[in-house]
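To the wet lab folks,

You asked to see what we're planning to order before we commit. Fair enough. Below is the target structure as tokens, and below that is the sequence we designed to fit it. If anything looks off to you, flag it before the synthesis order goes out.
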């Protein structure tokens, strides 16, 4: 039986959370490569990482931090590394965005 590894991104909110603030979205024109860590696959690790991202006005990730760990260092590190390759459509200005990164095996 073949096992599939899935990583899913879910944008949660803009910090600080003002009702009038707009949420950044992933730029569909720029591929966002998400690679499941091999060691985590072998150990059948799965979980959800919540990242805090500082986005530039042009949608690049300037800074990232783990707000809530998946429980596995390999998954947390892979999420932080992968997200730097992604680009966002930002509503403008430097802003912090909260992002949920879900690692699961099917």
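Sequence we intend to order:
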């Amino acid at each position: 039986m073949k096992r599939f590894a899935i990583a899913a991104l879910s944008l949660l909110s803009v910090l600080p959370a003002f009702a009038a603030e707009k949420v950044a979205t992933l730029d569909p024109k720029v591929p966002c490569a998400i690679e499941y860590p091999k060691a985590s696959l072998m150990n059948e690790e799965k979980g959800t990482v919540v990242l805090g991202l500082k986005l530039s006005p042009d949608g690049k990730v300037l800074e990232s931090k783990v707000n809530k760990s998946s429980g596995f260092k390999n998954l947390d590190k892979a999420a932080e590394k992968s997200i730097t390759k992604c680009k966002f459509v930002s509503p403008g200005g430097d802003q912090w965005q909260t992002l949920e990164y879900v690692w699961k095996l099917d």
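Structural context that might help your review: The beta strands are 5-15, 25-26, 47-55, 61-68, 88-89, 95-105. The chain is about 15% helix and 40% strand.

Thanks,
Computational group
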